[in-house]
Write the structure tokens for this entry.
Amino acid sequence: MMEKKAVIIVAGGKGLRMGGDIPKQFLVVNGKPILMHTIERFYEFDSSMQIIVVLPQSQQDYWSELCRQYGFVLPFEVADGGAERFHSVKNGLAKVNPEATLVGVHDGVRPYVAVDVISRCYEAAATYGAAIPVMDVFETLRHLTPDGGSQTVPRSEYKLVQTPQVFQAELLSKAYQQEFTPAFTDDASVVEALGHTITLVEGNRENIKITTKADL
């Protein structure tokens, strides 16, 4: 059976850490705004999938103007951003086609996700229910102790988490009916709160979240 897919691209950032007035998802890289590159990656993966972009209401007119300016005509829908990422994703979920069986959630400022990583995440989610891309930790990690000190921890026991985080639609929808808590730092943590296991797949090193000027 052909799985019907959707992705919620969360682009609610105000870009404050970038230091400029323009939200980071709209900064131009390689000839077009970052968010357009991100949308293109998913369209390249599956041109029939539903793409939902979550943006604060205050940025939606500006985004429409950018789409006109850059002649960006790939199909997508817009949902309103919420107070926290949790609420933004919930608003995006409300627009997901009822026929969709797999739903991914991706950061709007991760334009360099590899198409094969997207594919791996959707395939694993179809089989196991929930899948996220991760990378090995290469730097040494130190854990801050309650006494104000710190100690090295074995980095082989940790992974760096990326997006898209992909889930069976029914599971994600049920997870987002829970009350918000600050412990929900990503979608996997929301689904995990239901007691569901998260499957890890290999991400790609270039799939960074553009957060600071150094990332640009």
The first strand starts at residue 5 and ends at 10. The chain has one domain: 5-202. The chain has a mean pLDDT of 93.
